[in-house]
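Example record

One chain of 65 residues, shown exactly as stored in the release files.
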Amino acid sequence: MAKTSPLEFVNEVRAETRKVAWPTRKETIMTGVMVMIMTVSLGAFFTGIDSIFDAIVSSLLKLAQ
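Predicted structure tokens for this chain:
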């Protein structure tokens, strides 16, 4: 593999960056909102599951005493 100079590397990076299809502001905001909604809903779901398992384990430990 041939070595490239730092200037040539920077020029290649700029050329590749121009090819990227950047999202619009609206797409970025909508994606962020969806991430927040999914994070909150999954947090609530796993909190509920954890509460159920906590109740089960607590009741089993009470039976063992």
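Notes: The radius of gyration is 26 Å.
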